[in-house]
Amino acid sequence: MRPAVQRGFTLIEILVAVFVIVMVASVVMLNLNSPARDRMAEQHAQSLSNMLNYALDEAEFSAQAYGLFMWRNLGRDESIDLEFRRLDEGLWRRVEDEVLSAPLVFDSPLELRVHSEGGLVELEAKPEDETQLRPVFWLWPSGEMSVGNIEIRDPVSPSEEDWMVSWTLFGQAQATLGEPE
């Protein structure tokens, strides 16, 4: 008499397969909700805060108005470019300072919400004619600047708190983690 042939999987084999599937799924989920984007948002917020304070100091020391210009770069995955310029003889000229001339680009997936003087600012593409550029924020030689804030958020993995760069009429820009508006 032949022994009966068993067909199918044992309980141990099924448990091992389920365990492997759960482990792979958890690794994938950790990578999707990576804190790397949160660190990137924090670094951008800290950099922008430091640059705003530095630009205000430069405006005071040079006795020239500075402006923060922002626009959407439609050619590069909808990134947002920021640039400081100084007002010289009625024209906005590029800043020749090592710190302020460094490009500051907010790449996707980060999203900015810009508020100036209490209103939401819609960022548009950079005009081809640079004489049409207008600053989003002014930094005056008197040590004052346009009141506003910039919310930096990650729409791919929204959290309860976003990074906020805010300042007063007298500068004092600071990056904080807080509730989105």
Task: Describe the protein in words.
This protein has 181 residues and is α+β, with helices and mostly antiparallel strands. Helices cover 27% and strands 32% of the residues. The protein has 2 helices and 10 strands; from the N terminus they run ααββββββββββ. It has helices spanning 11-32, 36-62; strands at 66-73, 79-88, 91-94, 104-106, 111-116, 119-121, 137-139, 148-153, 162-168, 171-178. Strands 1, 2, 3, 4 and 7 form a 5-stranded antiparallel β-sheet that branches. It is elongated, with a radius of gyration of 25 Å. The termini are far apart.
Concise synopsis of the structure shown:
This protein has one domain (36-178): minor pseudopilin epsh fold (3-Layer(bab) Sandwich).
Largest sheet, described in full?
A: 5 strands, antiparallel
Per CATH, which architecture? 3-Layer(bab) Sandwich
Query: Any idea how many domains?
Result: 1
What would the principal axes of the Cα set say about the shape? elongated
**Helical fraction:** 25-40%
Give the CATH superfamily: minor pseudopilin epsh domain
Kindly name the structural category.
alpha+beta
Sequence stretches where pLDDT stays below 50 over 5 or more residues: none
Order of helix and strand elements from N to C terminus:
HHEEEEEEEEEE
Query: What gyration radius follows from the Cα positions, in whole Å?
Result: 25 Å
The DSSP helix count reads 2
CATH topology: minor pseudopilin epsh fold
Calculate the mean pLDDT score and round it: 82
What's the CATH class, please? Alpha Beta
